[in-house]
Specification:
Elements lengths: L3 H16 L5 E2 L7 E7 L3 E2 L5 E4 H6 L3 E6 L6 E8 H8 L5 E6 L4 E5 L9 E6 L2 E2 L9 E3 L11 H6 L4 E7 L1
Parallel strand pairs: 1-3, 2-12
Antiparallel strand pairs: 2-4, 5-6, 6-9, 7-8, 7-12, 9-10, 9-11
InterPro entries: OxRdtase_Mopterin-bd_sf
Organism: Yoonia algicola
Protein name: Oxidoreductase
Length: 171
């Protein structure tokens, strides 16, 4: 786990970057295994023109938790992760779309308009536990399907990519 000081530095760095997206800022490289590589139109980097994030770095961002059922699991589950809105702000994305890619190279387009308060999250926990690759992890884009009927459509289901490992921000 990141130390308290490292978490504060990361959160402050991400906040500063979201205020000034035109200027790319370098942050500390991840100390753990990289779970998400972010590229494209972003203002925060730590590996050339991309941002590499480990699980601790994602967990240092503001967390959102909700309960919902899915068409891929039985019953209602609790999901915790960073909202797509907070994620976009933390990397300085303001418009366009997210090209989200899974470990098997499956790619979906998620419009920036989905990055709203009360919208989808990049989940890293299901029912309080990390998700294995076998269980659609380590990252899964989850919408609060039960809270809004608009989230129960084939289009939204197709955006609910699991085994997420890359995001390109395209403007």
């Amino acid at each position: 786990m990141l130390s308290y000081v490292k978490k504060v530095v990361l959160v402050v760095s991400l906040a500063v970057a979201s205020v000034s997206p035109a200027m790319a800022q370098q942050i500390e490289a991840p100390s753990g295994d990289v779970v998400l590589t972010v590229s494209g139109a972003l203002s925060m980097t730590n590996d050339g023109d991309q941002l590499l994030l480990d699980l601790d770095m994602l967990m240092a961002l503001p967390a959102t938790t909700f309960e919902t059922s899915t068409i891929w699991t039985e019953g209602v589950h609790q999901f915790k992760g960073v909202s797509l809105a907070d994620f976009a702000a933390s990397v300085g994305a303001e418009a366009g779309l997210f090209l989200a890619t899974a470990i098997n190279d499956y790619t979906v387009e998620i419009p920036f308009s989905d990055a709203v308060t009360g919208g989808p999250i990049i989940a890293y926990l299901m029912d309080g536990e990390a998700m294995s690759v076998r269980d659609k992890g380590p990252l899964w884009v989850i919408y609060p399907y039960d809270s809004n009927s608009l989230y129960r459509s084939e289009v939204v289901y197709s955006r609910s990519i699991w085994q997420l490992d890359r995001v390109e921000i395209v403007q």
